[in-house]
Design brief:
The protein is α+β, with helices and mostly antiparallel strands. The chain contains 18 helices and 19 strands. β5 and β6 form a beta hairpin.
Length: about 475
């Protein structure tokens, strides 16, 4: 039986103050309003209109014991808890489907516990900003190898909870490949620690119960990830223009199948490339590679890429410095977020992304069919395109990028534009055997298709939720909608 809270907002706030202290319980109305959503509803946020349930409080945890005590209270009283660290979520993960919820903020758990250069791993609390730990490591000639565009904003707990990946994933892998061990708290207050070992075969890999759980099973409090040597003096950049995406996908496939591991392998269609490379793109697609690591490896990787690309006459190489300069300014800092908000207000034009993945045999069909349907079925779309930025031996991802004019009230934008576009992309991906989400997480935005995504294996996912969170107090509605748990 799933509990629903019978406590009032005042009773919840009083209980939280008793657990973590008055100074760590935020009840300011404006702050609570902004905490009721994430960037999926950024037009509502910009407009100061909030349609989702407002939390009773933001609870700032000081340590693992705080999190255990708060989760145990929520579990016993049916209070929905939204775990949060860096607050850079994109898929309605931070919304609540239940009233009188709390946001449990772990950004104060921001200690770097140990940089272990001998065993090549770093341990830190969940609230450590990725940019901060990366800067510390770079001073020592090291790197996590993890570099999502949100690196200056995202924190380690959220990155693990959303199964994040970064711009160098083709070489280093996603966060699931980097995780060594971790600590997490379950809703009954149980604190669990998965030890740091390079590999083990003692049953299922239980790290993957936690990695990617989006706060719907447990709260991540500490993580240990691998680190690597950082050798920027050996970086090599390669850029090409070409006529069509199908050729670009084939080049990416050949590079991966031949065994090369560039840290960056990206393909932009004409529409998406125009926003990044207008100074050299000339109405063409753009293909980008970066090789990094020891000098011998980067030299061999670069030579292999050049040999493969040379087989395609339509590819024209551009100066490598153009690619290096572009990549140096790709990450989003708080000032870029502020600039985007100002631009939306000024232009009444909104942009979003939806990322999926599929095997090589289906990725181009998904790209073409989704773009065609968005243009035909959704009004006011100014452009739709995309790029591939994470490749594997058996397939690649695709970021769909789309912009539309805002000819509606702020409360209508989600339903008139964003959800319909998301739906088309998800449908086309699933129809062609792909996955509906590559690394942003399911949240509540893509949860309606979770059964279609999993098929018969939905049994496993549902059983995990019912076993670890039987009262559905952990980010209820994320990944699995409420009605799918009946």
């Amino acid at each position: 039986m799933v509990l629903s809270t019978v406590l009032s907002r005042e009773e919840i706030v009083e209980a939280m103050e008793g657990l973590v202290g008055d100074a760590n319980v935020v009840t300011d109305e404006e702050t609570l309003q902004h905490a009721s959503i994430d960037r999926y509803r950024k037009y509502e946020d910009i407009s100061g209109i909030f349609t989702q349930p407002i939390p009773a409080a933001i609870v700032k945890a000081r340590n693992t014991d705080d999190i255990a005590n708060v989760l145990k209270f929520c579990n016993e009283n049916g209070v929905n808890c939204i775990p949060r660290t860096g607050n850079s979520a994109l898929e309605s993960m931070l919304e609540s489907v239940k009233p009188n919820h709390i946001v449990l903020d772990g950004s104060g758990l921001n200690k770097v516990i140990k940089i272990d250069e001998y065993n090549m791993q770093v341990t830190c609390e969940a609230g450590v900003v990725l940019e901060d730990i990366e800067n510390l490591l770079r001073e020592k000639g090291l790197t996590t190898g993890h570099s999502p565009q949100s690196k200056p904003l995202a924190q380690m707990g959220g990155l693990v909870a959303t199964r994040s990946t970064g711009q160098f994933s083709t070489l280093y892998g996603g966060i699931e490949d980097m995780i060594v061990g971790l600590e997490a708290v379950f809703p009954n207050g149980e604190v669990t620690r998965i030890k740091n070992v390079p590999r083990r075969a003692a049953g299922p890999d239980i790290r993957h119960v936690v990695v990617g759980n989006e706060g719907a099973l447990c709260y991540i409090t500490e993580v240990t990830v691998k680190i690597f040597k950082y050798q920027p003096e050996n970086h090599r950049f390669y850029g090409y223009t070409l006529d069509d995406m199908s050729v670009g996908f084939e080049i990416l496939r050949e590079v991966m199948v031949e065994g090369y591991k560039p840290s960056i392998a990206r393909l932009y269609d004409v529409a998406d490339a125009a926003g990044h490379f207008s100074h050299f793109q000339k109405d063409k697609c753009v293909l980008i590679f970066m090789a990094e690591g020891p000098a011998g490896i980067t030299e061999a990787t670069g030579a292999g890429i050049e040999k493969i690309v040379a087989k395609y006459e339509q590819c024209e190489q551009v100066k490598s410095q153009l690619i290096a300069d572009w990549f140096a300014n790709l990450n989003w800092f708080p000032e870029q977020v502020a600039e985007e908000r100002e631009e939306i207000v000024a232009t009444k034009n909104m942009g979003f992304t939806t990322e999926i993945a599929a095997d090589w045999g289906n990725i181009n069909a998904i790209y073409e069919s989704a773009c065609r349907r968005v243009k035909a079925e959704v009004p006011d779309v100014t452009w739709v395109g995309g790029h591939s930025s994470h490749s594997y031996i058996n397939g690649t991802n695709l970021y769909f990028v789309y912009y539309y004019d805002l000819n509606c009230e702020p409360t209508e934008e989600i339903h008139k534009y964003h959800n319909p576009i998301n739906k088309i992309i998800v449908e086309e991906s699933l129809k062609h055997g792909g996955t509906m989400v590559h690394h942003h997480g399911v949240g509540k935005a893509r949860a309606p298709w979770i059964k279609d995504e999993y098929g018969s294996s939905f049994y496993i996912l549902k059983t995990l939720k019912q076993a670890f969170d039987p009262n559905n107090v952990m980010n209820a509605g994320s990944i699995i909608p409420l009605e799918f748990l009946d």
